[in-house]
Structure formats: structure tokens, C-alpha cells
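Expect chain and fold; see below:
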Amino acid sequence: TQTQQSTSCGSGIIVSQDADNLYIATNNHVVEGADSLTVAFSDNTTVSAEIKGTDPSTDLAVIRVALSSIDSDTLNTIKVATLGNSDDLKAGQAAIAIGNALGYGQSVTTGVISAFIQTSGTINPGNSGGALLHPAGEGLGINSVKYADTSVEGIGYAIPISTAMPIIEDLITKEKVDEADSAYLGIGGVDVKSDVAKTYNMPTGVYVAQVKENSAAEQAGIQKGDIITAFDGKDVSSMEDLSSKLQYYKAGTTEDVTIQRGSKFMIGALAGISSKCNRRR
């Protein structure tokens, strides 16, 4: 087995600030698996950062920078972004994509809005997590992916800011639970991705391949063959996503789990989904 270290780059939007920290929203795929993070501001100063929270199902993440690590000149240069309302967007409106294209620093491209906040503005590698702006400067979306194929010029997509902000605010305010006290469901799961879901007429989520004996999942009535589609009212897209969500819940907490069993959905308060007394690994 060989391990190779690599470096990647992306963009981010300063979305909030409190007495101690600056919070920057970006894409989950920008920070996923990172051992260390460095933020470069518009004046080319750099500081270390840490991941505050991630939501793989929506490809969103928040990173945190201590204000004490940012010099006063830089603090006077940067500011929290002004965000708009993406629900008011209409096809044909102008849009500006800014970011850190190819890791070379600030870049700006222009385009128009299409369906699903698709934009003709160029989104190159490194622009992920950057802002899609209204010409007046309001943030309308977070640049996420670019679809490239020999048959197309390249189509960029952004996450609507009105969809993203409740998730981002949740990631900012919620604190991860210490691992010794964190929730444990007690299943072995397999991802049900969109292509598999379409082929077999299944919902996306986590297929329960194993339910561990005396676990919280067993006590709650979860069975092998169930598909977990949501946890605490939030969609579940993969086992990684489910594990990421569980980091914010203490053992002993009771939350709702939504599953599909056969051809019917079950939505209920499945008691004890995070039973502290049955933590087995």
C-alpha cells in the first residue's frame, strides 16, 4: 500500500463572524479528507483554518479561522458577504462567478442564469465553493460543479444561496460531540447512489446490510434491507453523510429516522437511535 500526499485548491465565501472566529462557506469536496487547511485572502495573506462542519449530501462545508490569526490590515480589507435571495432568480439574469480558478488567485467570469442555477459563467477547477453574484454584488449561489463533455462547451452549476444558508448556519452553530460521547447507530451500510437508485427503482440513501446485535438500530426496529433516506429531517445520501450527521448528536439522544422498507416509506420517532449503553465498533 502506498500513500501519496496531494494539495488541492478551492474558493470560499465569508458568511459570518463572531467575537472569536471568521466563518467561510465552501464545498464539501474542497475540504474532504484534508489534513490541513490554509486560507488565502484577497491581499494574499495566508492563515491556517479548520473544518467547522460538513454536509456531504448538499456538498457544503464551513471552515473556521481564528480572528487572532488575522492581522489588522487584512481585517480591514475583508468583510462578510452580502447575500441575496436566490428564490427571486429568473432565467436570463446576469451572473458573475468569482473564485480562485486553477489556484492562481482571484478570478472573475460573467454569464447568465439558466435552470437549477445553471450558469454560462465559466467555472474552472479551483472555483468550487466561490460566489455566484448578482451584478449588484449580492451572493446568489455557491459555485459547485462543472459538467464537461466532448459534446458540450461546459456547464456550471451553483447551489442556491437560499437553500444553502440554513444548512451553513446549522453547521456554524452546532458543535461536534466528543467521540467518547457521540451517537452510535450500529449498522453496516452501503451507499445507494443515484444511478443505482434509478436502475433498481430505489431511493437514494444508505442500504442497511447489517444490524448489530443489541445496537440502537436493532432496538429502534431497523432491519437488514431497509434504506435510510433521512435522519432528523435531513436527507441522507451516503454512509459518509450519515456518519457526518451523527457527529453532532450525543449518545442517548432520540431522533427521527426515515426508512424505506419494501415499497413503503416508514417515518417515525425511532427511539434510542443513539444509545450510549450499546456502543460497539
About this structure: Residues 265-281 have pLDDT under 50 and may be disordered. DSSP finds six helices and 17 strands in the chain.
